[in-house]
Write a structure and sequence with these properties.
It is built from seven helices and seven strands, in the order H-H-E-E-E-H-E-E-H-H-H-H-E-E. Helices cover about 45% and strands about 25% of the residues. The protein is α+β, with helices and mostly antiparallel strands. The model has no long low-confidence stretch (mean pLDDT about 80). The strands form three sheets. Strands 1-2-3 form a three-stranded antiparallel beta sheet, sandwiched between helices. A two-stranded antiparallel sheet has the order 4-5. A two-stranded antiparallel sheet has the order 6-7. It starts with 6 loop residues before the first helix and ends with a strand.
């Protein structure tokens, strides 16, 4: 594998590589070799310690032409993206703890009506683990008539921005029992 790089770009590349740890350089070169061998792409995220002591996250993307004649690449600052992802994960973890502490069955759905979060009480009522419920729609949990009611309430909630509650007897298909949920 032999590279031809313009002098100015070579200087920038050397400067960038000096900012990386030995392990990061190895990982980057390994990804580049794999992309070269497969005439494919790579996308790596690396952290760099700045002179002011702050940490920045850089995304290195590159692709090799099908005939393996050259590599094109881009380097971008992904610090905001990485920090936002971490904040979301922290918030999600916090919300899971809050919702899990509630004594009543509680579920959270996305805008498509797919469950994204359930608490312990919900899992007990439905006789399933959280992992079984997450990613499912109402039709998987209850009979079709009740699922349609729940989906109508979900749409109403999205349209009005106000929470709506249903209190009724549910036929839990998976548990083969009837329970009163609110």
């Amino acid at each position: 594998m032999r590279f031809h790089i313009r002098e100015r770009n070579l200087q920038l590349l050397r400067c960038f590589l000096r900012c990386l740890s030995r392990e990061q350089r190895r990982r980057l070169l390994r990804a580049l070799r794999e992309a070269w061998n497969e005439a494919g792409r790579f996308d790596e995220l690396v952290s760099v310690a700045m002179p002011d002591g702050k940490k920045r996250w850089l995304r290195v993307r590159a692709s090799v032409t099908p005939e393996r004649s050259f590599v094109t690449g881009a380097l971008s600052d992904a610090t905001d993206e990485v920090e936002l992802t971490r904040e979301r994960a922290h918030y999600q973890s916090f919300m899971e703890g809050v919702i899990d502490a509630l004594p009543l069955p509680m579920s959270v759905k996305n805008t498509e009506g797919v469950l994204v979060l359930v608490n312990r009480a919900y899992c007990q009522a439905m006789h399933m683990q959280a992992g079984e419920a997450i990613g499912k729609r109402a039709h998987y949990m209850v009979n079709s008539e009740m699922a349609e009611r729940l989906e109508a309430l979900d749409r109403l909630t999205l349209e009005t921005g106000s929470p709506h509650v249903v209190e009724d007897w549910f036929d839990i298909a998976r548990a083969q029992r009837r329970v009163f949920l609110r």
